[in-house]
Design brief:
By secondary structure, this protein is α+β, with helices and mostly antiparallel strands. It is built from 3 helices and 3 strands.
Length: about 70
C-alpha cells in the first residue's frame, strides 16, 4: 500500500477543490469531470464507494497537473 492508498472519493474531491478544481459535468456511469479554470486542466474522477485505488488516483493527479507530494500536503 502506497502513500496515496486509502483515500475515498470525498477526500479526493476536497483536496482537488483546494487546488481550484470545480465540478464541470457528469460523464459515463458514475464518473465526473472536474475542471480548473485557472490552469484549464480537466480530470475525470470515479464516484465509487470504498477506497480509490492508488493507480487511479495517480492518473487523476497526472491529468490535473498536481504532484502527489503537493496533493498530500493539502
Amino acid at each position: 500500500m502506497g502513500r496515496l492508498a486509502g483515500l475515498k472519493y470525498r477526500q479526493v474531491v476536497k483536496k482537488l477543490k483546494a487546488f481550484g478544481f470545480e465540478f464541470f459535468r457528469h460523464a459515463a456511469g458514475s464518473h465526473e469531470i472536474w475542471h480548473n479554470p485557472k490552469s484549464g486542466k480537466y480530470t475525470t474522477i470515479p464516484n465509487h464507494p470504498g477506497d480509490m485505488p492508488e493507480g487511479t488516483l495517480r492518473a487523476i493527479l497526472k491529468q490535473a497537473g498536481v504532484s502527489p507530494q503537493d496533493f498530500l500536503k493539502k
